[in-house]
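Readers of this paper often ask what the protein records in our data store actually look like. The remainder of this section carries one protein's record, kept here as part of the documentation.

:::
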Amino acid sequence: MASDATSMPNLAEAPRRQLPEPGELLLREGLAAEALPFLLEAERRHPGDWKPLCNLGTAYRVLGRFSDALAADERGFALAPDAAELWGNYANLLDDMGRFDEALLAHRRAHVLAPSSQQIGFNLSTSLLRKGHWQDGWPLWEFGRFCQSWYPMAPIRVWERDDLKGQRILVLKEGGYGDTFHYLRYLKRLCDLGGEVDFEVWDRQAEVLTNHPWGFTVRPASKGVPLYDYNYMTSLLSVMAVLKDEPDGVRCEEPYLWAKSPQMVSRRPGTKLAVGLCWAAEENKTARPFRSVPLEALIPLADLPITWVCLQHPVSVYPELRIAHTAISNWADTMNVIAGLDLVISVDTAVAHLAAAMGKPTWIMLPVNSDWRWLLGRDDSVWYEQVELFRQTLQEGWSGLIERVSKALEKVA
């Protein structure tokens, strides 16, 4: 599960006996710009209250006004130095700024002040995991995720590393499509422990997941599962935390998903490479989209002697990129197209995980506050053999990152 770098988990709420402030309500809906004047007015009307400052700092962070967010948090700390929500928001801001050492200290402080907060616990877990502190991070990951995920109540025992020999275990879908492609490897671990594993998946992914080398059974969610048939249940993103595995132990050096009908790509005259491009992640519910590359930043790539193939869905026309379009309507189509490419370049989204799971050379473009699973300070992946990481810096933005990608392509094109 990707940690949402623009989430607003520590929104300081008005007391329940009072009506929420208008700015607070707008901020809850992700309307930071609209909330800003109301939040500034709330600060003016309540000069001794830290809560409007907490919300104001969140709004500034979502708008990318980091210096203003820091100033608002500092004014809040002057009034309430031990407010857990303030420390949580301050930690999120430091993450967005790439100040990860300071952010970890702030996340720890927030957790000390509010140890029962699942959201704060989850944020601390991802901060720890990002720095490779696996054994410290897994318990908080498992504790905190219950505020992120929906767990159905079922009369099945939750698996807690019990002996699986001769036992049936149901693994529930969780996270996004990319999480499914990525964490599929952990189902092999359950099979290796002797379990008879069934994996409930979204119908859209069922077809492409059945072609795997391991011993679990894929069950489309729409068909339902007879719960009484299982000894245990767990969720996909719980398995690694319960096992307390470190990524090096589950690194996949060989492909584990394959296209059934690979589609060969016709290269433009004068080009020898066909490269798939995915520049936008699904961030509809994100307050401040941060994983997607603006289209205008990609235009310099069009001058390279490369046949570009669109891996976005739905496909639109982008003549400025000189990009070839293919008939992609589902994940099977996407796999077939990827199979015929020389390279995939993608933002951190499901396409990147699918290409990597297929063993295709994959370059992933990461924002400053990238997901914890990519760790820090490295250009390779602990999960996939064929992945190279390109990390954004706060100073260069996406344009600078694309320039580095362009230079790397010139060496291979």
Q: What stands out?
A: Residues 22-144 form a domain with the Serine Threonine Protein Phosphatase 5, Tetratricopeptide repeat fold (CATH 1.25.40.10). The chain has 16 helices and eleven strands.
